[in-house]
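pipeline/complex-builder :: batch 7 item 3
reading input block
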Amino acid sequence: MEIDVKKKQENELVFIIRDSDLSFANAIRRICMMEVPKIAIEDVHMIKNESAMFDEVLAHRLGLVPLFSDSESAEALLIPSECDCEDQCPKCSVSLVLRKKGPGVVYTKDLSSEDSKIKPVHDTIPLLKLMEDQEVELEATARLGIGMDHAKWEPTTACAYKHYPHITIDEKCDQCQKCADACPRGVLEFDEKTNQIKVVDLENCSMCKSCVRVCDHKYITIGHKDSDFIFTIETDGSIPPEEVLIKACDVLSNKADKIITFCEGGS
Amino acid sequence: MIPVRCISCGKVVSAYFDEYQNRTAEGEDPKVVLDDLGVNRYCCRRMLISHVETW
Ligand code: SF4
Ligand code: SF4
Ligand SMILES: [Zn+2]
Ligand SMILES: [Zn+2]
């Protein structure tokens, strides 16, 4: 298996996996979305809420706010089910406080965290609106969780792969250029020098087959390589995409280990 | 209030809401603003374009 990084940004990672298979790529995709733990607000203790927004709605909004944490402070936190406390303790939770008086819009920048390393990714998310003389005061508890339990614990937003496209143009092609005009993604271009249709941006092809439909004699065919994938991981900013991938691989190998011990007669 | 995240994909669109509103109110083309903010998918774009702030 070969991995080739195509694009690497703060919150987005695009790479090509070669000589792999569908089930492996899909396992990685599902684990990235569902089983990589991250921190999100779980319990909200409302002390005062005089705004027009219901407590439940506000709590839900707070839950969806992505919280950034460096890997150390996230790893120092225990998963609540593995912690030996009864309800919550500093070992398995972080509390954030929101206290604000109207009028005005309350933003995530108004949330103050007890741990300076765990804080909202964005400062500009509007949480609620307060009118003149209205007040809000609450204490929120953030915990580790996984996407399988609630979407707020999903570290990824877009996490997907597509097959690596494979385009073939028959020699009999009469260079009518219809396919190049029909392609919505600029994959095909007519090369003036060689007088031929050329594939200029293969990886951008969405396999929509618009080009096949306009070709009178079906000289162009769109296929894919079964073993190659273009994988995209985009995160909400709470964990860098490389780390999501590394953790997903750890989870997958743990699962594989469990199956091996089971097969060897362990439990 | 604008939903915190895109309903389809989960991108945190609300973080760009104020800037989007201010810039479009000044007459900038919504397409340019959205491209600039990095809101690329159409599911996320509709969240900002179609939102009506009622209260
Ligand atoms: S399948 Fe679609 S994107 Fe790909 S080359 Fe043909 S028209 Fe372009
Ligand atoms: S539409 Fe068909 S015949 Fe025309 S240039 Fe494309 S492949 Fe060749
Ligand atoms: Zn605990
Ligand atoms: Zn979206």
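note: Residues B 6, 8-9, 11, 41, 43-44 surround zinc ion (ligand 4) (CB under 6 Å).
queue -> next item
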